[in-house]
């Protein structure tokens, strides 16, 4: 089943029970939460071709995060029964799940390190690079439609700071900052920025 989400729509709230594995067909989602003081915390950006939510399905527990559409986004919903049929009957599907979970775990551990050790430029560079993970989002390509405000939300910086940093990254030859999006020119250097 397909569903269209408008910008600013909360698709999932923390504590919801959702009976689907979710894939991003187009657009961009923000996976995160809101603290009790009202601060938005971003865990990941979810670009096209990214599937998520397998952990909550496998553990049978409510979602541990909010999912917000940053722009008009189409999602595909694979229902629980089909998900578990594949889980029980397809070794290839199980290998895909293990690979996704392992890759995502590595990404989150790296994000904790980046949040503690990198400056704003490093956080923006690494946040952008994470959107181009070939395991988690295999069909993203080298360009993503994303605004400076959305980059700021994902990296935890303001839009003006994101704008300044994108200009720095472009001057360094790592990206091409375009109207309404970013093209990655050197993904490896972007991934290792700040090391």
TrEMBL record:
InterPro entries xref list: cNMP-bd_dom, cNMP-bd_dom_sf, Env_Response_Regulators, HTH_CRP, RmlC-like_jellyroll, WH-like_DNA-bd_sf, WH_DNA-bd_sf
GO molecular function per UniProt: DNA binding; DNA-binding transcription factor activity
Example of a GO cellular component annotation carried by this entry: cytosol
Alphabetical keyword list: DNA-binding, Transcription, Transcription regulation
Gene3D superfamilies: Jelly Rolls, Winged helix-like DNA-binding domain superfamily/Winged helix DNA-binding domain
Occurrences of domain Cyclic nucleotide-binding (ranges): 1-83
PROSITE patterns named in the record: CNMP_BINDING_3 (PS50042), HTH_CRP_2 (PS51063)
Domain of life: Bacteria
Keyword Transcription regulation: yes
Keyword DNA damage (UniProt): no
HTH crp-type domain sequence ranges: 118-188
Protein name per the record: Crp/Fnr family transcriptional regulator
């Amino acid at each position: 089943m397909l569903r269209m989400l408008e910008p600013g729509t909360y698709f999932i709230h923390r504590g919801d029970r959702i009976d689907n594995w979710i894939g991003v067909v187009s657009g961009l989602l923000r996976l995160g939460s809101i603290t009790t003081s009202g601060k938005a915390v971003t865990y990941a950006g979810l670009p096209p071709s990214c599937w998520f939510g397998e952990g909550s399905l496998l553990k049978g527990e409510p979602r541990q995060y909010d999912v917000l559409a940053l722009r008009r986004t189409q999602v595909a919903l694979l229902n629980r029964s089909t998900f578990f049929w594949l889980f029980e009957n397809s070794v290839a599907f199980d290998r895909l799940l293990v690979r996704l979970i392992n890759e995502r775990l590595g990404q989150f551990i790296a994000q904790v390190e980046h949040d503690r050790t990198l400056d704003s430029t490093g956080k923006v560079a690494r946040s952008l690079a994470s959107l181009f993970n070939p395991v988690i989002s295999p069909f993203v390509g080298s360009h993503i439609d994303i605004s400076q405000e959305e980059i700021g939300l994902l990296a935890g910086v303001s839009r003006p700071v994101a704008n300044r940093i994108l200009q720095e990254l472009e001057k360094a030859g790592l990206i091409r900052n375009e109207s309404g999006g970013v093209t990655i020119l050197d993904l490896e250097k972007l991934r290792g920025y700040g090391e």
